[in-house]
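ok new one. same drill as before - structure tokens go in, u give me an amino acid for every spot. 613 of them this time. try not to just spam alanines like last time pls lmao
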């Protein structure tokens, strides 16, 4: 309870900005680069544009740690530009990020040391690479009881929580979640400045630091000891669903209901990661843990860049400088035509575009599908693997038949997205692979089936790509997960909490996905709850999109390449090329003096656009 009280107190603190303004001293030139396409195989080699120019941020991915590849997703989703380097190489950028543990030769370590001494910034995420001296740390030896065959001579971090709220370091300012992590390095500072400490999985304090920072020559070396990339992947993708999950002791998460579903695989803690609400209400995952971990990584990179005078260039997460995007989906449980028309009337009244997750077969007439599409809504699948007949079981062939059947029934040839009925799920990544194989681009099944799981049970409000870390080599699947916050406000989650959840989406530049069933829209207060939610989002500057719109925007945004960035007086001239047309894209230049410059404009397809913001 003590830890929950601390987290609850932070709820009242100001919301941290997802893209902090930091830096000092203008650099004369930013390196040039391209952003890779939306689907990336891993471990990915450095991809350069036709000019062979380097990236703003150089990254190097350990081939031995699959989750290290998730650095690509973190940077791409944030909208920064990067270039991938071979281990031990620095490229031409002044900031190099190492993900995972690299096996480096003496010559490679010497080259990286010289890079830092000569004014470079080296950021390491969960790896020492044999360079303890450069980072100014030493490994902590294992206890005398941890000896014997197969035992490690050095201690490792297990599951725990970052204890950083009392620090004054800009990397950790304003973070609100529990900061749950899984794995990492146990080190002590020798010459580095240590920031923060860790708690074990039971909330007990351990004298092991989180961030270690050392100035070396004209540069800086930064080490984040906990394995944040592995933690993000583990929280978002969870465990394989092979059996019912363990229910919460307080009765708010009765997962042992005999049906396999997404929340049977979630890994966040019932006590430390949820917040208690009013008496009689189920606790809620009110803050996105994985997104706070993403933010720590991004802020560390920004802190490193400003320390060495390196500007950073970013394409904002959403067009027109939107702070976040809202998504409302509807599940056609019961397939009643009357309820469908009633929902469409409410959608048109509030003036939004929504995603209609529809079962097959369905009693909706073609006229209802046509009317929903005319209103700008998306027809999506509501995959049903909950019935006893052969066509409604769990399996790729059943899934494919339902996609095909809905396309024929609705007249929509390009079904883009899906949400599983009752959030059914089996295995870990199999269903994402099914979506990719059949050509669906989005899924919205990662969410709560129980009241006690509402909020951010997968730790994120980002549209995220699954990393197939079971493949050899690992690769990103060509699908976006649109994480679900809650079903039906006032039934699963008190409507008064919706604004706080919208605020979290805004704090992290993400999206807020809410589900309203057609079957409940005529119940007292339900239409009002949906309309109030939409108004609260608009009051905060949000727009309401379909899942298909999110996918189209995100795919186009990630296709933008930064082909040139040079100083013109005190301004930075950049040249961009978009592989797909991108309307109202906002370019942000983070200057080393702490200022940001922004410009919003259209980027035509495959045409170089020169901008001096």
């Amino acid at each position: 309870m003590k830890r929950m009280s601390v987290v609850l107190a932070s709820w009242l603190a100001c919301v941290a900005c997802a893209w902090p303004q930091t830096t000092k001293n203008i650099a004369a030139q930013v390196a040039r680069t391209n952003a890779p396409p939306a689907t990336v195989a891993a471990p990915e080699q450095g991809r350069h544009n036709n000019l062979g120019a380097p990236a703003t941020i150089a990254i190097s991915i350990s081939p031995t740690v699959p989750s290290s590849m998730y650095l690509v997703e973190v940077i791409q989703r944030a909208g920064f530009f990067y270039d991938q380097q071979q281990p031990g190489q620095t490229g031409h950028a002044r900031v190099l990020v190492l993900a995972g543990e690299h096996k480096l030769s003496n010559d490679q370590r010497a080259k990286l040391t010289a890079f830092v001494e000569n004014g470079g910034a080296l950021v390491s995420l969960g790896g020492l690479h044999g360079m303890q001296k450069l980072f100014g740390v030493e490994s902590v030896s294992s206890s005398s009881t941890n000896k014997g065959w197969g035992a490690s001579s050095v201690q490792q971090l297990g599951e725990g929580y970052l204890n950083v709220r009392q620090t004054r370091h800009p990397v950790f300012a304003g973070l609100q979640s529990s900061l749950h992590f899984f794995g990492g390095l146990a080190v002590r500072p020798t010459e580095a400045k240590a920031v923060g400490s860790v708690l074990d999985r039971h909330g007990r304090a351990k004298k092991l630091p989180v961030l270690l920072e050392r100035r070396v020559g004209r540069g800086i070396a930064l080490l984040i000891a906990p394995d944040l990339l592995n933690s993000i992947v583990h929280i978002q993708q969870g465990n394989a669903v092979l059996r019912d999950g363990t229910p919460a002791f307080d009765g708010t998460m009765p997962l042992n209901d005999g049906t396999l579903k997404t929340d049977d695989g979630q890994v966040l803690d019932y006590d430390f990661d949820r917040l208690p609400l009013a008496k009689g209400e189920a606790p809620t995952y009110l803050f996105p843990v994985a997104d706070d971990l993403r933010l720590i990584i991004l802020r560390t990179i920004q802190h490193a860049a400003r320390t060495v005078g390196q500007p950073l260039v970013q394409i904002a997460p959403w067009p027109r400088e939107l702070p976040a995007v809202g998504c409302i989906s509807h599940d056609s449980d019961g397939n009643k035509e009357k309820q469908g028309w009633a929902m469409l009337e409410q959608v048109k009244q509030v003036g939004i575009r929504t995603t209609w997750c529809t079962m097959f077969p369905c009693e909706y007439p073609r006229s209802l599908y046509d009317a929903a599409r005319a209103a700008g809504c998306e027809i999506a699948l509501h995959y049903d693997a909950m019935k006893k007949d052969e066509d409604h079981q769990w399996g790729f062939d059943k899934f494919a038949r339902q996609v095909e059947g809905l396309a024929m029934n609705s007249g929509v040839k390009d079904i883009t997205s899906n949400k599983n009925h009752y959030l059914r799920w089996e295995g870990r990544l199999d269903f994402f692979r099914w979506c990719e194989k059949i050509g669906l681009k989005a899924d919205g099944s990662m969410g709560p089936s129980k009241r006690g799981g509402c909020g951010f049970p997968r730790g994120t409000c980002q549209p995220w790509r699954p990393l197939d870390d079971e493949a050899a080599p690992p690769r990103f699947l060509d699908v976006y997960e649109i994480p679900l916050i809650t079903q039906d406000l006032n039934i699963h989650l008190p409507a008064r909490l919706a604004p706080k959840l919208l605020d979290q989406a805004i704090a992290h530049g993400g999206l807020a996905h809410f589900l309203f069933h057609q079957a409940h829209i005529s119940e007292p207060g339900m239409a009002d709850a949906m309309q109030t939610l939409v108004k609260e989002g608009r009051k905060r500057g949000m727009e309401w999109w379909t899942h298909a719109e999110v996918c189209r925007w995100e795919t186009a945004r990630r296709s933008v390449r930064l082909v040139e960035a040079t100083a013109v007086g005190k301004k930075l001239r950049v040249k961009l090329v978009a592989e797909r047309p991108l309307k109202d894209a906002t370019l942000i230049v983070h200057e080393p003096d702490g200022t940001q410059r922004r410009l919003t404009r259209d980027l035509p397809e495959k045409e170089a656009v020169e901008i001096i913001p």
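Confidence is low (pLDDT under 50) at residues 1-55. and btw The chain has three domains: 2-233+290-309, 320-554, 562-611.
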